[in-house]
Amino acid sequence: MTPKLIAKSLLTLIKSKQPVFIWGPPGVGKSQVVRQVAEKLEYELTDLRAVLLDPVDLRGLPRISESGDAQWCPPSFLPKDGKGILFLDELNAAPPLVQAACYQLVLDRKLGEYQMPEGWLIVAAGNRESDKAVTHRMPSALSNRFVHLDFATSTNDWLDWAGQNGIAEELQAFIKFRPGLLHDFDPSRNEKAFPSPRSWEFVSEIIKGRPEPEIEYELYKGTVGEGAAAEFFGFCKIYRKLPDPDFIINSPDTALIPEDPATVYALCESVGSKATPDNTESIMSFASRLPAEFAVLLVRNAVKKERSIIESAAFASWATANSDILI
């Protein structure tokens, strides 16, 4: 399931308070989706790393009451009131005894004398055994207590998220150009670094830090691996030598069009990101000079940036003239 479908599923299951387990390879954004759902609902999010817990951490400590009976004091990190999501991240990486301690909490929403508030939902997540991550086989008794969702990366979902969260423009352009590198994880390769939505977000932060040229490639290689870093570094060299998109918008009929397809692709991304209602006519004029596949790319990028473009006369004129490639 794509991230958007995972989010929709969580919103549905929250209504029934059904425990959910999200499975997926490292770095795809499982915890990010859970956090986004909590923010959308204005729910509190308690993130527990199950792998760091001991069984006694969940049950709490005993004390003697005034009547002389032994009572368990639940830990402070378990929710007491309100609405929220109790997120048991890396649950299947936790030792078997910790997983066993979760049986009653997951199914009955209680643990010993502790009772989970009505407004809270349990969501867990973990890597698959095939990913060669640190995992323990989940007991069938615990597994049967969850609704299981398989997380799959989606380029479109990631690009929507990236556009809303300030991810570097050249990185967004590169992922559109090479969508297969958004997540390229093969556990058999035993790589220290590999491309994933999480590691590309790290790359975006590196870009914003303006690294010195002599260390830039090495930083990328240490974040997403040698192959992806080499491709992205080469793409950045092209992207940074592009004509000024403002110059193209101001001179759409005379601006030179690069011969290299990769450069034209990057240029379409750059110009499209500058779209506004006021420069629609200029962008459509420039698009009319491009090869068909690049013209469609430019217009699509412009519309994604500024939806009102589709209501303009310039867009209608361009769409009519290019109806054969839009069908």
Walk me through this protein's architecture.
There is one protein chain. The chain has helices at residues 3-16, 30-41, 55-59, 96-101, 103-108, 140-143, 155-164, 169-177, 197-208, 213-224, 226-239, 245-250, 261-272, 280-287, 292-305, 313-321, 323-326, and strands at residues 20-23, 44-49, 61-64, 70-73, 83-89, 110-111, 114-115, 119-126, 147-150. The protein is α/β, with parallel strands linked by helices. The strands form three sheets. The protein has a five-stranded parallel β-sheet, with helices on one face. The chain has a two-stranded antiparallel ribbon with strand order 3-4. Helix 8 packs across helix 13 (261-272). The model has no long low-confidence stretch (mean pLDDT 86).
CA-CA gap between termini = 29 Å
Q: Residue-averaged pLDDT, rounded?
A: 86
Helix run count: 17
* Rg of Cα set: 25 Å
Number of strands: 9
How much helicity do the residues have? 40-55%
Instruction: Give the uncertain stretches in residue-range form.
Output: none
State the assembly state of the protein chains: single chain
H and E order: HEHEHEEEHHEEEHEHHHHHHHHHHH
Proportion of residues in β-strands: 5-15%
Report the major sheet.
5 strands, parallel
Shape: elongated
Structural class by secondary-structure content: alpha/beta
In which order are the strands of the major sheet placed? Answer: 2-5-8-1-9
Summarize this structure briefly:
The protein is α/β, with parallel strands linked by helices. It has helices at residues 3-16, 30-41, 55-59, 96-101, 103-108, 140-143, 155-164, 169-177, 197-208, 213-224, 226-239, 245-250, 261-272, 280-287, 292-305, 313-321, 323-326, and strands at 20-23, 44-49, 61-64, 70-73, 83-89, 110-111, 114-115, 119-126, 147-150.
